[in-house]
Amino acid sequence: MTDVDVIIVGAGPTGLMLAAELRLAGARPLILERRPEQGKTPKAHGLSGQILDLLHHRGLLERVRGLVTDPVPPHRFPFGGVHVDLTRFEEPPLKALSVRQQSLERLLEEHAIELGAEVRRGHEVVGLRQDEDSVTAEVRGPGGSYEVSAPYLVGCDGGRSPVRSMAGIGFPGTTYPEVNRIGQVKIPDGLTVHDNGDIETPELGRIKAGFTRTDTGVFALGSLTPGIVFIQTTEDDPGEVDDDVPMTLAELGDSIRRVLGGDVPLGEPVRLSRYQFSARQAERYREGRVLLAGDAAHLLPSTGTAINVGMSDSVNLAWKLAAEIQGRAPEGLLDTYHAERHAAGARALLQSRAQVALRRGHDEAAEALRAVFQELLDDEQAARRLASHVAGTDTRYPMPGSGHALAGTFVPDLALETDEGPTSVAELLRPARPVLLDLAGRPELRDLAQGRVDVHTAKTEDRPADVLLIRPDGYVAWAGDAPDGLGEALAAWFGA
User: Fold this and answer.
1) Which residues fall within 8 angstroms of residue 142, CB to CB, at 6 or more apart?
2) Collapsing DSSP states into helix, strand and coil, what is residue 63?
3) E strand or H helix at 55, and its extent?
4) Is 391 helix (H, G, I), strand (E, B) or coil?
5) In percent, how much of the chain has pLDDT > 90?
6) CA distances (Å), origin 44, targets 27, 204, 357
7) Angle CA 168–343–17, to nearest 5
8) Span 177-206, mean pLDDT?
9) pLDDT at residue number 1
């Protein structure tokens, strides 16, 4: 007898998103978080990529937009010491919102609890065991030790994941010998900011916006918000960094002095954080009844991608896990989580490792490489392709039974006209259920899907296919104009 359907270890964005998605699929999740309250050390300060479309599908995007701290959305993003300029695109291939991670976590926790999920803070998983039917977590909580069992447990407990270690899953890769320190500070007296983003300091004179490399490190400078300057230093340091120890303004100032050889006036801090980059991926995302998601499964050595990839893991996993628990999953469905998301994680690791290669070199050859790379990014197609890679929007999963160009891709948010009035693909996917969308009045194709997925008939301009079969995570499982392969796709994803 199990206590809940899924034990989730970790109440970061990945774990909270997983809990909400499981509730939408009818499963009972329990989140166990070792910290008694939300961490106060600033971490990610933005949300970008495919996850924004997924949040739109769940009706959460407007709530997330309400958390935005910077009024102007960024249209230039750093890539390994160069910048990708997206201002030329009417619809940027990489979307981003400036949202503090703590604010995002609060929103996601509220959302999960609204749907009926339980979150226990101050409850640390100190052991686990599993058999053919269930997994049991040994927990140390405020009231003492206890055990809780479930058919499955998912480790969403970060890069140092105890769950991953207890499950015996390897985590090969590299931790880079560098420390990055970030500060967003108000502009103080004695610091002049020029129109082009350069700053003027009494001691060092003019410092250009972008990246300044010295023999002792890298100084990065930028600004998105009026009255606030963004500063980052990167220094080689072979020691390990404790992310839970808050960084001080004095620590940032000392780092600037080591890198630039002088002081930069720093005003009141808005955000201070430090981190170390690792490039690692779990050997497998599943060991029996234990699964991994988010940073427990992959660490990416660049900013701006980890939350996107981790929350996307959750959306991919939840509906498959719920189907397995509820006894309606076709054979092998849960195994597709590792197959699809390990490949997606490896691709994210590819572009983030490329950023390491671009940014870490300090000699003339490295400067030449960055200059050539920057020149290549002046080409619109190159910039679009790289932005899509970072966003994860170029992810394509293998799909049985369909050779259509849309099969395996994220579904476009088509504007739809139905007998009940106007709607959209995103609105149809809000309940997180599979959808067969008939765009051409094909009752023989609708009949194949009745009873297994939600069936909708609609019309749209520039119809991409007669019928789309869409998974709960927003990926097209089948698309076509004839029934060939539709029955196979339905059986593969949603059973007989």
Assistant:
1) 36, 122, 123
2) helix
3) helix 51-57
4) helix
5) 68
6) 29, 30, 22
7) 75
8) 88
9) 62
